[in-house]
Amino acid sequence: MKDMLTTLKERGFIQQLSDEEGTRRYLSGNSSAYIGFDPTAGSLHVGNLVPIMALSHCWRAGHTAIAIVGGATAMVGDPSGKTELRQMLTVEQIEQNIKGLKKQLSTYIEFDSDRAKLLNNGEWLSEFKYIDFLRDIGRCFSVNRMLAAESSRMRLKSGLNFIEFNYMVLQAYDFLRLAQEHDCLLQMGGNDQWGNIVAGIDLIRRVESKEAYGLTFPLLTTSSGAKMGKTASGAVWLDPEWTKPYDYYQFWRNSEDADVRRFLALFTYLPLDEVNRLGALEGEELNEAKKILAFEATRITHGQRAAEEAADWKRNMAEVNFSAARLSKGLAVIDVFSESGMFRSKGEIRRLIQQGGGYLNGEKITDFEYTVTDKDLKNGAAELRAGKKKHFRLVVS
């Protein structure tokens, strides 16, 4: 059986390790690993899935998974990877966001089990007296080293305020607290968290004389360079009220060809042999791999039933209603596409059709002056498609 570190590496989760052999030894036994999630919004999004899935893989392999929801650190704001100050949230906003994050994280890890913990760092950080914290914890940190961290250097030009400067100390203390109370000696996070993780490792060494470990994940982009989890219409959220399961399914279904193997490894639980087989497919066969990716990713986040319904794209197809009287006079196909609301202009639709990307009932539209009539209806509707991604149905009301 493969060790946990090899599994994470082969699936593409690892960017940096503080001590590879030490981490491998640590994960060879019944160990604990933690990741922090600051509740800056009421939902996590696809960009958060790499750490979520890595922690889930650890839990499924028999390790203890600890998720920290940063009720306290969210009030400070992590400067890592940011060029400007985060928006300050109220206590009420943070509490509401925490509820959403707890519900979503429980989809991937069963926190009512003995091997999983969902904790809020507000429970210990909010109780600290300022002078005591400076004396007991702050004295362990070198300002020179903190300023040299990437998260600080990025912000020095635009301005790094004092409250953000403290973020590294608070996150390092979280790691120390987990080491002391939960025997957790591995922190994982995005690659922009490297400086914060190393600070925690150093703090544990100074206070507890123990060796702790850090592991970071790559900050993913798609093959075309787009930020992972972003679309033209905005972020792809994990909350089904923010991003409907059908749209979530379509996000994965429309993955770029070059990303399929990588996404199958990162965002599904499929065995690597199956991932490699599917990722090696080409042409039309690769579309089947994309369907499997979309189904598995949707099933994990939203459940079996939601995945099955989302996969039934005809059932979920958007509808554009026209009156029978209007259809009887004939509808210009450009007007039908335009009233779907999926296009910026009729000029864009003309170019689509001229380039062979418009379809009516599966047949390519060769004339952008084509008129749609009731003869084009099948069972009271006509199906239209723009390229591979935009589908809708003309329905007579």
Number of helices: 20
Counting helices, strands and paired strands, the structural category is alpha/beta
Instruction: Using the coordinates above, name the CATH class of the largest domain.
Output: Alpha Beta
Q: Say how many strands there are.
A: 15
CATH superfamily of the largest domain: HUPs
Radius of gyration equals 25 Å
Low-pLDDT stretches are none
Shape: elongated
Work out the helicity level: 40-55%
Mean pLDDT: 88
* Total tally of structural domains: 3
* Biggest beta sheet summary: 5 strands, mixed
By CATH, the architecture of the largest domain is named 3-Layer(aba) Sandwich
CATH fold name of the largest domain, please?
A: Rossmann fold
Could you describe the 3D structure shown?
The chain starts with a helix and ends with a strand. It has a five-stranded mixed beta sheet. Strands 1-6-5 form a three-stranded mixed beta sheet, sandwiched between helices. Strands 2-3-4 form a three-stranded parallel beta sheet, sandwiched between helices. Helix 12 (about 245-255) packs antiparallel against helix 15 and helix 15 runs antiparallel to helix 16 (about 305-310). By secondary structure, it is an alpha/beta fold. The model has no long low-confidence stretch (mean pLDDT about 90). It folds into three domains: about 5-215, HUPs (Rossmann fold, 3-Layer(aba) Sandwich), CATH 3.40.50; about 230-310, Tyrosyl-Transfer RNA Synthetase; about 315-395, Roll (Structural Genomics Hypothetical 15.5 Kd Protein In mrcA-pckA Intergenic Region, Chain A). Helices cover about 45% and strands about 15% of the residues. It has 20 helices and 15 strands. The protein is elongated and about 80 Å long.
